[in-house]
Amino acid sequence: MKRFLSMLLMAVLLLSLVPQALAADEPEPIPVIAREDLSPTPTGLHHYMLICIDSWKADLSKPEGQFTDGMMLVTVDEYAHRVMLTSFVRDMLILRSDGKFGRVNNVMAKMSPNDGKQGIQMLIDTLNSHFDLRIEKFIVVDFKQVENIVDAIGGVDIALRDREKDRIRSFGVKLPADNADGTTHLKGYAAVLYMRIRKVATQEYLHADGGVYADTQEMARSYRDSVVLSAIAEKLKDITYQDAMKLLDVILENLVYTNMTTDDMLSAVDLALQMRGIPVEHITMPVNNPSKQKADGTWYEISPTPEHFKKDGLSYCEFSYSDMAVKQINYELNREKLWDFLLDSFVVVDEE
Questions:
Q1: Integer Cα distance of 49 and 100 in angstroms
Q2: What is 18-48 written as a DSSP string?
Q3: Domain limits at 240?
Q4: Is 154 a domain residue?
Q5: What is the pLDDT of residues 312-339, one digit of tens each?
Q6: Angle CA(308)–CA(309)–CA(310) in degrees, nearest 5?
Q7: Out of 15, 160, 263, 326, which could bridge 164 as a Cys pair, Cβ 3.0 to 4.6 Å?
Q8: For residue 230, is it within any domain?
Q9: Domain-embedded: residue 183
Q10: What is the mean pLDDT of residues 133-147?
């Protein structure tokens, strides 16, 4: 009898451990910053947020099925004469305004399923509170509109790897012969396909543990977004004022939504003309320093345990807080690295 009770007790203890062994990583607390506590934007620094909807034909009146595919902050420092791109990867774990965890690219669909314009503002507010920014101006486009804008400037020249070429060709695109400098000329559709490649690494890096790793899918896509934007900047380095105004007309015709006024757009064009020919600098948030240890690195992967349930006679599997795997971000460290990047060579200006 005593032996039976001992075995029963051991069985109960083992069973009690099973959920813990199968449970997903629990998200760490996310230290967001209240709007009134955000750091002021330094004089001379201008932020413009570029958002691409994950669709070839976005409709903000029906945002529930649409996510943000690309999030790129363009920062211009008119005093230090710098143009900086900050890419935000889509699978960052964030704390939504309703107090729940989620992926950053789901904010619009999850938080404002019936009002895409409000959802875009919620996304901006989320990036501000997580990265200590005061982004105010934004432009929203979809894949087709990016295609049209690239075609309007005559395409872009990109250095492609063989696997990237194969991926683009798999969509029926015939690529031209390489240019003399090894780049390939891409029209708008091919440029968008290049930007969306995830399963081909763009670079490898040496980790602190001594291992060599390829970048992750979302890191690769963010990197390619910045490559195309840099190629556009390179193409426009000698643009005249008249051609810049023609391009502005094309951009205005190919917007899903923006909160920028005509005066805002004209000011941005004037600022861009001042920065012609300046090399574009780039950083990705989070910076590419992953770790399998929670206390190390700027981010690590976290996969939620799916919840199984039945609805209308069908079986469903839903992740409990993010709908899919995410990156847990060390926001304090990434904020520090972001601002080190933005303020590098910063010029102090005396206010009159």
A1: 24
A2: HHHHHPPPPPPP-----GGGSPPPPTTEEEE
A3: 27-142+216-221+236-342
A4: no
A5: 555 544 444 555 678 888 999 999 999 9
A6: 140
A7: 160
A8: no
A9: no
A10: 90
Length of the chain counted residue by residue? 352
Q: Has residue 242 got a pLDDT over 70? A: yes
pTM here is: 0.78
Residue 321: CA count within 13 A, CB half-sphere: 22
**Identity (one letter) of the amino acid at 114?**
N
**Tell me, what CATH number does 254's domain have?**
3.40.630.190
Question: Is 351 within the bounds of a domain?
Answer: no
Burial of 253 (0-12, 13-18, 19+ CB in 10 A): exposed
Radius of gyration of the chain (CA): 23
Strands (E), 59-197: 68-77, 82-88, 93-95, 101-103, 137-142, 156-158, 184-186
Structure tokens at 271: 């600022």
* Cβ atoms of 132 and 33 closer than 8 Å: yes
How far does the chain reach from its first CA to its final CA, in angstroms?
A: 90
- The domain tally of the chain equals 1
